[in-house]
Amino acid sequence: MKKKTLWKKISLQLHMLGITTVAGCLAASTIVPISIVQVQAEEGEAEEEENDEYIIEDGVFYSYIGSATSFTVPSNVTEIAEEAFYGSNELVNVTIPKSVKTIGTGAFYGCDSLKKVTIKGAVTIGEEVFSGCEALTTVELPKTLTSIGGYSFAECTSLTSLEIPGSVVTIPENLCEDCTSLKKVVLNKGVKTISEYAFNCCSSLTEATIPTSITEIGNFAFNECGLKTLVIPSNVSSIGTNAFSANSSLKKVVIAKGVTEIGADAFTDCTALSSITIPASVTQFGTSICYNCSPNLVIIGIAGSAAEEYAEEEEITFKADSKAGNNVSVKDDVEEEKNDNSVMKINKTKLKLKVGQKTKLKMNGTGAKAKVTWKSTKKTVATVTKKGVVKGKKVGTAKIRAKVKGKLFTCIVTVKKK
């Protein structure tokens, strides 16, 4: 056994016995019975013969000391201890099984090569768990998850997308701060609070799904992001200070009826912002909420409302709309519609039938709630039902078209004699 590995095991066991070690040394005043060291060293040697990759004690995964690029945590583990994988720079892929319920603070902190993590059943993720994992691109979070600690993905500069299950009620502070490659965030229905600085300085973030369950958006939550449009649902009571400031690509904001307060500088330095709809329910305005926005900015609201008064005070153009903030459409229940338009496709683009023969076409990747409209360009040759069942009528060629989410998909049907 290497001396470093042996000492790491002995240090761990001494720590479990309440004896402190510092940088590979014992405190000067500490007296350790030689029998303890000998026993722990001998046990370490035995473990090393059977497994030289990790240390597990009573279901707790205390330390990873291997050098593999891919690793699956053993199924007898229920908890991953603090900093268990700290500095394991060889790791690229990690799978955490359903048996693991808790992942401790900084468990994977600074794993420089880690690219993909699959978590199958965790309930709690501590603070800074993946912080500083600069190569991390993919994280799969389970629906069992209820709590995530602050800074868990901070400075994961290669992370491109993140989906938070609705079982997580609070998005913690600084969750993804400085994730400069993050382009898409999906918060599923059930999430209620977006804490301060949660997505601060995610400069590539152009798409963020804010579900109807959200009640609070904290200070600087989406500061210095790349959002282009924004819909704030009615259950949100307040929009925090600088919540969406410095989103230089943000052009349009719609705030639903129900929101009562917009914090100071909420949209400051959104230099492209040309339209913001503010309902009559908003009665509290912080200072400079639209400072340094587009000179063509228009506030849309109900005549006689606080929004109109605010526009006059700030010398911003006001446009009266009696329906401002009503019937605002918010994309929701994302878990049921995980597939986006980029992967939608018809199951067959070419089809051969005989007269009288039937077959069913299907759209894949549309999501469970998507409405598909079917149509035949030549009903005398081939017909199609509302459910996509195609029937050959006479010899010839027809096109069957499916329309979903504003896009058309075509299958060319050739009908031959029986």
Describe the protein.
This protein is mainly beta and 418 residues long. The chain has helices at residues 3-16, 34-50, 306-313; strands at 21-22, 25-26, 54-57, 60-64, 70-72, 79-80, 93-96, 102-103, 116-119, 124-125, 138-140, 147-148, 161-164, 170-171, 184-187, 193-194, 207-209, 216-217, 229-232, 238-239, 252-255, 261-262, 275-277, 284-285, 298-301, 317-320, 345-346, 350-354, 358-360, 363-364, 373-376, 382-384, 389-392, 396-404, 407-416. The strands form nine sheets. It has a six-stranded mixed β-sheet, with no helix packed on it. Helix 1 crosses helix 2 (34-50). The longest helix is centred in the N-terminal third of the chain and has 17 residues, at 34-50. Residues 1-9, 20-50 and 332-342 have low confidence and may be disordered.
Radius of gyration: 28 Å
| Helical stretch tally | 3
Helix content: under 10%
Low-confidence stretches: 1-9, 20-50, 332-342
Extended strand count: 35
Spatial strand order of the main sheet? 3-4-6-8-10-12
The fraction of residues in strands falls at 25-35%
For the largest beta-sheet, the strand count, sense and barrel status come to: 6 strands, mixed
